[in-house]
Amino acid sequence: MSKSTHIDTDNMEAIYHKPEAFTETPMRYCPGCTHGLAHRLVAEVIDELDIQHRTICIASVGCSVYAYEYFATDATQAAHGRAPAVATGIKRVRPDNIVFTYQGDGDLAAIGLAEVVHAAARAENFTVLFLNNAVFGMTQGQMAPTTLLGQKTTTTPQGRSIERGGYPLNVCEILATIPGVAYLARETMTSPKRVMHAKRSIRRAFEAQIQGLGFSLVELVSSCPTWWGLKPLEALKHIEEKMLPQYPLKVFVDKVSQASEAVAEGGD
Amino acid sequence: MPIVIIDAEKCKGCGLCVAFCPKDNLELSKDLNEAGHYPATVKSQENCTGCKMCVLMCPDVCIEIYKEVEEVAASE
Amino acid sequence: MSEYVLMSGNEATAEGGIAGGCRYFFGYPITPQNKIPEYMSRNLPEVGGVYLQAESEVAAINMVYGAASTGARVMTTSSSPGISLMQEGLSYIVGAEVPCVVVNMVRGGPGLGNIGPAQSDYWLATRGAGHGDGRCLVYAPYSVQELHDWTARAFEIAERYRNPVMILADAILAQMIEPCKLQPRGQPPPLDKPWAIGGDSSERPRNIINSLYVNHDEEEAVNRRIQARYDQAARDDLYYSEYGDEDPEILVVAYGICARVCETAVERASEGGVKCRLLRPISLFPFPSEPLAQWAQLAHKALVVELSMGQFVEDVRLAVEGRCPVELLNRTGGNVVTPEDVTQKLFDMAAES
Questions:
Q1: How far apart are CA A136 and CA A110, in angstroms?
Q2: C11-29: per-residue pLDDT in tens?
Q3: Which residues of chain A neighbour B42 with C-beta distances below 8 Å?
Q4: Is A6 an interface residue toward B (CB < 8 Å)?
Q5: Is the residue at A55 inside a domain?
Q6: In the CATH scheme, what is the code of domain C4-236?
Q7: Which CATH number is associated with domain C240-352?
């Protein structure tokens, strides 16, 4: 049924329905962009942990700048790279609120690297979703700190070279050295299995915050079909073949107590 | 028997659900939606097992799956 | 025990913040304002507040933006280079219509400059909070007591106009020590602003603190709404003081530390038979244009005294609008105009007419 014929679902039980933590605003991402997947996982985790009405979303600057329109929570929009500082300010006044920043690689790994490193160093008790798609999306495909060597972008037309562009930046490996980090993982969303694993990490990151254990971050290796010049499915393959060798998937730090382990498993 | 409901107007025709449906039970429609995409559509509801692979891979939360309540009652 | 305490301008400023209900401070070390974060780090925890040293002034102002978005009374202080770094954050705070207080203890510039006193951030302070039409409301104390009182008062003004308020002073005011009558440490107001984020949002619509308006008409409407607040501040929160003769031949205009110098000079000039009237703006934005215009109508000449290459003088000339010539006596780079300099200048000006 291509046209959405109205089906009366009142007397039906939902196997899956749209998360409560989403607003009605349709997402503006390009077809097949994994931002949408990441948003859904965060919304599902917010629903499952029942924290929607005490969560604060901090949108950054990039393709995901409109995140505050998609999550049905209190929200604020931070200057480029400064979301972790804004989150710090909010958490210091409202420690009982659950705060998460949603940032791309330009926002977090370029202009905002100091903010995220120091938030981790201060063991600030909030959660960062770090979407690494190796390019500046909103501004039309420029090189980002995480752009792969040899990768063509609108500012590395000959492919990223070490002389002009330097080496790709592995953020998780940097943050893994910081004691203030309570949960740190790199995941991806290239298949249902990967998506479920990514959701588990997102959930544990939020649990680290709920338990007050300190700074949590989940890096999601993401696709950018538009600026990679690939179809959505090809872009997922590109992640597996080209991105993951540079950004290996791993749970770097997990201080979430075993007690909540049982809850986490039972919650799905 | 699960009912798969795809919001054809919100769907951007990215094809990920089509690619990951283990029953190959989804395809892109021949008809354009308002936004100019060929939305995903279910080939036949009977083949659907309700496995949610399509839901997991949909970047725009266009897919919802329901099950008849009587069927639930019958199975208890 | 006298109710007055000998205090530096920095510490009186910090205590003023606490008296004004500020419980959250995010700062960064930079001379000559360091005693403020130090004071806050000692005293805020005692009143259940939070002091946090950020990794940069860029981070500090964005922490202020976040904390103030919850409706809390939040403050940061810095000095010239740090205030430059805070401009983008201030622009977001203005655009998101969030109140906060920022103190700038101005030092010699530009660039690294030095840690001497200056007023060379006048334009930076009054002309804009970073990019866009937004501005800070700016108040310029000229004593330790006024630093204390105006910092305490700044939060209420910021909340009234949902806009940053900047307290503008300099290295002398920051570090000089004078008796100061301390205000009681008021209880901070509850975090109940209708627009604020945080707390439990189940019983209210969700709040969004944001400065992104892709629709141009909406953005224009936001700018007009903000400008209307500035117009209201010009009616309700415009302050200046005057000193000297009622029928002056010379109108002297100065703010902050220079106004202290000019009070002495005006006294000496009057003793020497030169009638002068000092008009001292306390609010630099909104600017006291009307009283200046009225006095310029009476006086034959005006003299502006400031510690910069001539920034404040431009606003005075705008207000005077040709009613009388406006001369500038200035030092900069950390140097300070002395009472003797001003007194001599007043005698010279009187002699010329």
A1: 10
A2: 999 999 999 999 999 999 9
A3: 1
A4: no
A5: yes
A6: 3.40.50.970
A7: 3.40.50.920
Taking the C-alpha atoms of residue A34 and residue A94, their distance in angstroms, rounded to an integer, is: 31
Distance from C-alpha of A73 to C-alpha of A57, rounded to nearest angstrom: 7
Contacts of residue A11 in chain B, CB cutoff 8 Å? 68-69
The CATH code of the domain that includes A68 is 3.40.50.970
- Residue A51 to residue A45: CA distance in whole angstroms: 9
Range of the domain at A147: 21-267
Q: Where in chain C is the domain with CATH 3.40.50.970?
A: 4-236
Q: What is the mean pLDDT of residues A144-159?
A: 97
Q: Would residue A13 count as lying in a domain?
A: no
Per-residue model confidence as pLDDT tens digits over C227-236 = 999 999 999 9
Say how far apart CA A104 and CA B47 lie, in whole Å: 39
Q: Is residue A207 part of a domain?
A: yes
Select the residue of C56, C198, C210 nearest A90 (Cβ to Cβ).
C198
Predicted structure pTM score: 0.95
Query: Which two tokens mark C235?
Result: 């009616």
In angstroms, the CA C194 to CA C207 distance is 8
- Residue of C54, C56, C70 with shortest CB distance to A90: C70
Copy the structure tokens of residue A263. Answer: 């809850």
Task: Select the residue of A33, A40, A231 nearest B61 (Cβ to Cβ).
Answer: A40
Task: Say which DSSP state A63 is in.
Answer: G
Whole-angstrom distance, CA of residue A54 vs CA of residue A113:
27
CA dihedral sign, ordered C63, C64, C68, C74: positive
A153: its two tokens: 């972008």
Domains and CATH numbers, chain B: 2-67 (3.30.70.20)
Interface contact flag, A3 B61, Cβ < 8 Å? no
